Amino acid sequence: MARVISLINLKGGVAKTTTTVALAETLASRFGKRVLVIDLDPQTNATVMLLGEKRWKQLNEKGWTLATLFKDALDPEDRKFNLENTLQKKVSDVQGAEKVDLLPSSLDLIDVQDRLASAPTGQFYSVTPIDLLRLAVKAKLEDYDLVLVDCPPNLGIITLNGLRISEGYIIPTVPDILSTYGIPQITKRVRNFSREIAEDITPIGIVITKFQANSTTHVNVSRNLRKERDPEVFDTVIRQADQYAAAAEFQTAGRRTLKQKYGYADLAERCIDLAKELLDKLEMDE
Q: What is the pTM of this model?
């Protein structure tokens, strides 16, 4: 069974999605892992980053996204979600990362989330809104070594679906006041949710992103996060670089290397270090 990890931050613009995809592609290309990316974020950035906008639009028009799964919960008599059609295989454009698959997102999740709280719970209350994703994908999880869930920047029902199937979570964050402000809220809410469902969901750590060594704020906030150790901070730091942001652009002209996508300086190496550190924390073989 796969090791399932959610990535979450309540603040946008912290490189959460880029970190999710970079980890997936690095784990596949450098460590030979079978990786599934589950895009629960209505912004669809992970989906477009892996598929390109043209292919995403085609899938969205056919209803082959996770939005259909959640829409079905609102109208159980007319189910349309098909896991086989929705699951996109070999989506990465990085050489050697052919083992990356994707369950794509949709902008429609924005409207669906607000209505899920009133979704029918099924006969004998057997299905709750937070169990929809788990029930849909549990049979497929054994096909993967790792599953990375890109969560929305909130703690709503869609995010709880991701956490429900996760053994742990990572918080990517820019080391500034606004980006780190919601971390205590995340850890408290996930801790309470974990107790409620009687399943362990462990904070695996904070990943510092977009770090600027010449910024006093970045240096001080990073130091404080490491001192607080709640959660612990990954040793690997992703510095601010144009190439890391540019990696989000899907390339149609064939495959590229990890270094071509994430930078010839040290960014690709930092991605490898981060993936290696995650495997160590999960006690998985490299």
A: 0.94
